[in-house]
Amino acid sequence: MVNEIDPAKGHIFLVRGPVNSALYDLKKREIYSVNPLVASALGDGAEGVQSMPLAGLQVDSFRSLQASKPSSISGEALQVLRSYLAIHPALGQYAVTGGKGFREGGGSSPFSYQKVIGEYCNTSLRRLNCIWLELTQSCNLSCAHCYAEAGMSRPKELSLGQWKEILEEGAQLGAKEVQLTGGEPTLCPWLTELVEHAKSCQYREIEVFTNATRLEEGLLRKLATLGVKVALSIYSYDPETHDGITRSPGSFGRTVEGIKSLLDYQIPVRANVTLMKENLSHFKDTREFLKGLGLKEIGYDYVRPTGRGRAESTRLDVDVAKKAPVLYMPSSPEGIRGFCEDKSAWITCWRGEILIASDGAAYPCIFTRKMPVGKFPEMRLEEIIQGQTVQRLWQITLDEVETCKDCELRYGCFNCSALALTTTGKLLAKNPHCQYNPYTGLMEGHGEKGMKERPKTRIDLINETVEDEVVIYDPKNHNVHHLNPMAGIIWELLDGNHTPKEIAEEVISVLETDPVQVERDVTKTIEEFQRKGLLEEA
């Protein structure tokens, strides 16, 4: 369900999930995770706040705070909660009205369901934005996980003239970005000529994806002169591990020298580390190594079950991948911000993008080799991208994806349909690497965060005691928490001087009740504080 907090301006929306909710500030392009208490405080059907169900989500299960107030929170604590919400970066500009939700003084306009659909789920003909061109199947390395199974060139690959035609057609169809990749694109003797042609077609961004082992001085000068960006792959800080993955002795040294040359020529460069069984534990050290070389843009991805990446020797099990560094941070329910960008209307990675392989075959993504959508030159680029198949793939949103359709973060979350398809066999399956479960409101697969032997509340939290209740404001994610009297006693004892057992003993002395039950309740409460990130980590 979506609530429009400010219908007059139409830039703040509350999207409710089964447990948590999310505030979308379209003006600031940010998202704020909202817990059930704060979502209830915003009201349902209050003045200036109107609701409309969206696809995949049923009738709102939250009661308004006013309806549940007698049994859940006192009037005094409610006022403290409202005072905290008044400093929320998305809500602070609004007047807090006694029991009537948030509104900007003076009237409102009707909530428009079509407006939300238009903002996020526009089903009109999609335009081309980016093209990937795999110039050759040839490669001087033989990486164990290569999705393209590069090595030897295909018998019949497109000519320089045909690649120029594709660039021209792409620009005419609205494409602003092009990536020249392979195989290894530097094996193409006419690469610089093609780069010059892409520049003449007025592409806003031109990127060459290379293994950086063959960067000759003439090519470097041309890339620097034309303002071309470079992306490269590197697999470890450890030469033996890197060379083992590329299956080419000495490739680590050549890639490192290539990086240094790119930086010397002041060519914008980003590095990508593909994580697999052989290097999963190396990522942090590899990132630090690359930073030491002078790289600022360092990304990573998991090996995809495509091409040679299907081999058991390299492939990561889903459970292992879930315990690896978090790739899709929009799945984090706490402190999520910064993902409500212009791409909020481009939720599926491949939307507006097309790959042309070296033999002319077209695919929606580099990882969907079993899903051809056309072939050049038998079909012109316009015919391919305006075809029913491509347009349908481009129009997929998370409102259609299993589980995601109910998630409050779905309008700011990145979705990789290719990964879902190649891993689960289902196009509309949830991304298997996503750890967030919207039905529990919790991250899964990473285990519990470490807790100190003598737990202590975070020093930056703001809290106020109202009679026997405690209201806590978390400045990191702007959520507010309300504690009942027993939880409030436990909270006060989380000062770093008491173990959970000692806290239980203190509570027993105050309440004079069943010791076994108290110990269970104390442990459960402290664990809940830990899950919400309210305690210092060990």
Structural shape: elongated
- Give the name of the CATH architecture of the domain at 128-320 and 348-394: Alpha-Beta Barrel
CATH superfamily placement of the domain at 128-320 and 348-394: Aldolase class I
The major sheet is characterized as: 9 strands, mixed
Determine the mean pLDDT. 80
The CATH first-level class of the domain at 128-320 and 348-394 comes to: Alpha Beta
- As for the CATH topology of the domain at 128-320 and 348-394, it is TIM Barrel
The proportion of residues forming helix, as a percent range, comes to: 25-40%
Backbone structural class: alpha/beta
Explain what you see.
The chain is an alpha/beta fold and about 550 residues long. Among the domains are: about 130-320 and about 350-395, Alpha-Beta Barrel (TIM Barrel), CATH 3.20.20.70; about 460-530, Orthogonal Bundle (Arc Repressor Mutant, subunit A), CATH 1.10.10. Helices cover about 30% and strands about 15% of the residues. It is built from 17 helices and 21 strands. The chain has helices spanning about 35-40, 65-70, 75-85, 115-120, 160-170, 190-200, 215-225, 240-245, 250-265, 285-295, 320-325, 380-385, 390-395, 415-425, 485-495, 500-510, 515-530, and strands spanning about 1-5, 10-15, 20-25, 30-35, 50, 95, 100-105, 130-135, 175-180, 205-210, 230-235, 270-275, 295-300, 355, 360-365, 375, 435, 440-445, 460-465, 470-475, 480-485. A nine-stranded mixed sheet has the order 13-12-11-10-9-8-14-15-16, with helices on one face. A five-stranded antiparallel sheet has the order 4-3-2-1-5. A hairpin with a 2-residue loop joins strand 19 (about 460-465) and strand 20 (about 470-475). Helix 6 (about 190-200) runs parallel beside helix 7 and helix 16 (about 500-510) packs across helix 17 (about 515-530). The longest helix has 17 residues, at about 515-530.
